[in-house]
Automatic annotation (TrEMBL):
Protein name: YggT family protein
Transmembrane segments: 71-99
Entry keyword set: Membrane, Transmembrane, Transmembrane helix
Amino acid sequence: MWGNAFLLSLLYLVLGFGVELALRVYPTRFLQRLSLSLDSLPARALELVGAMDPLREAYFSGRVTEFGVRIIFGVTTVLVIFLLALVVGSIMGGLRLFVARRAWRRAGGR
């Protein structure tokens, strides 16, 4: 479970880094839209916990740089992916336990 979450978060971060790097060299409309779509996951997560407005204010007042926002978005993305892995893994583990107990009882256990 943790290995898949790590690989997925690593892939997401590498893709985001590649898009940002390509956007600096070749600022096309496609890359701008791709960058915005990659930023929507951490932005919505921060919005959900009420941290987006303070981050926005800090960015526009100059207390947080663009690099700082990227770091915060990257950490948020990794946390969201790991939380999703934990929730899905827990649900699947619970379902597997339920099915195993049911099969054990049908086989004459207890």
